[in-house]
Specification:
- By secondary structure, this protein is mainly α.
- It has one domain (about 10-310).
- It contains 16 helices and two strands.
Length: about 325
């Protein structure tokens, strides 16, 4: 092994990782890419909602005509599930230049995708602070599939549903002792936000029951159940099989994908770039990628290829 190879594989400390990211892009480049935009954020959100609205209309208006309804349901379901990406971007306060707008959109995007943005803000902050560090990164509590049964279980979304249903009610009851990433000063806010979210779902269920219509199930729960496996398929690629250390160039994967997927995922496919520079908004990530791609360890062509790699390495993946 050469000296260069030894240098590349040597684990980085957290301080080294933070310093190395600023040695790739200059401060001037970072400032240029960091420019947020209400205009671009609203266009992105508008297109996302338009896709959801049009596909939802086709699904509802062609119910029974399965050649139209099923593809429309898949698109509609993924457009709802991928509201997670809108929430994620707004939680970083990079979706819009107005922070109040970021917070409002984050909450409603979380409502649609069954996340709570207030809780997620603190959870996700730790994920960025301690990316891929065992016993610190809260995402490492998710299942890393070791066999085909576990892989299919993860892709189905069932563990996600179980964790989120259980988690929402535990938070609503104030049971936050297992959430060290939420500071004591923020607990009341997280609890209120989660209770309000559950109250909205309860109200939607009540309206459905009052009118004797399966609206809640047909137009939110079922589509989200259909969309979740697609989202799991995408999110599994972000870190699975990457290193368990502070090195942001090796512990995260960027996946080059189709424009429709990039659109609905708010460019989250440029995931290494996002972890290196979380302040860069979604609309600047493709251009930032052009400056960073030669430094990336994991740069793959498509989510199918990544998942093929994951399934070929079952039982051997770190984490």
């Amino acid at each position: 092994m050469s000296c260069d190879e030894i240098t590349q594989t040597k684990p980085l400390t957290e301080a080294d990782a933070k310093q190395s990211r600023h040695q790739i892009l200059s401060r001037q480049q970072i400032n240029f890419f960091n420019k947020r935009s209400n205009y671009l954020g609203m266009i992105q959100l508008g297109v996302h909602l338009a896709i959801a609205g049009c596909s939802g209309y086709l699904y509802a208006s062609h119910f029974g005509d399965w050649l139209v309804a099923i593809p429309a349901l898949v698109v509609y379901g993924f457009s709802i599930a991928s509201m997670f990406a809108a929430m994620h971007e707004a939680v970083h306060r990079t979706a819009f230049s107005n922070n109040q707008l970021n917070d409002v959109i984050a909450w409603f995007a979380g409502l649609l995708s069954y996340y709570n943005s207030t809780f997620f803000r603190y959870y996700h902050k730790w994920h960025h602070l301690y990316s891929r560090i065992p016993d610190k990164d809260p995402e490492l509590t998710d299942i890393t599939p070791k066999n085909w049964a576990e892989y299919l279980l993860v892709i189905s979304g069932l563990p996600w549903w179980f964790a989120h249903v259980k988690g929402h009610f535990r938070v609503a009851l104030g049971l936050l002792d297992e959430c060290p990433f939420i500071p004591l000063s923020a607990r009341a806010q997280v609890i209120r936000s989660t209770r309000l979210q559950l109250a909205v779902y309860a109200a939607a269920i009540a309206v459905s029951l009052l009118f004797g219509q399966p609206w809640f199930f047909l137009y939110w729960l079922l589509p989200l159940m259909v969309g979740q496996p697609i989202l799991r398929f995408i999110l599994l690629a972000e870190h699975t099989g990457c290193t368990l250390d502070h090195n942001l160039l090796t512990n995260t994967r960027t996946t080059l994908t189709l424009l429709p997927v990039r659109l609905l995922m708010w460019n989250m496919s440029f995931h290494t770039e996002h972890h290196l520079y979380p302040s860069i908004p979604f609309h600047a990530l493709p251009e930032a990628h052009q400056h960073l791609n030669s430094h990336l360890t994991y740069l793959d062509q498509g989510y199918i290829k990544v998942n093929r790699y994951i399934t070929s390495q079952l039982g051997q993946l770190p984490g």
